[in-house]
Known about the structure:
Elements: H1 2-6, H2 9-16, H3 19-24, H4 28-52, H5 58-73, H6 76-79, H7 83-91, H8 101-113
Helix pairs in contact: 4-5, 5-8
Amino acid sequence: MAASLEKRALLLKLMSMNHYDMEENSREERLCEFKIAYGASLRAVDGLLQKFCPDMDTAARRDFLYAFFPFIYGIYPYTVVTDKQKNAMEQAKVGYVYYSIYELACACAKKLLA
């Protein structure tokens, strides 16, 4: 899953922007198409969990899905940082650690499955 997300940085960028406004201002047929794809992605990940984590019951899989999907929608801003943001963090002595999409998604999935 993490490798698949790494290849979809633009999707993550769009999803991390103002998602509510994007959906609110979309034509209904386009929003429906998006929701069909979203539902398919939920079912696909649930299928992966059923196959590779057979000990997880329906409730555990649902808990994973509704922790992981909100996480990935906000992952982009943590992986792509502008020079201006870097400078501001350095000046603020934030000590920020830079991770790739893959690294963050994989770490989250591992924690949720532990």
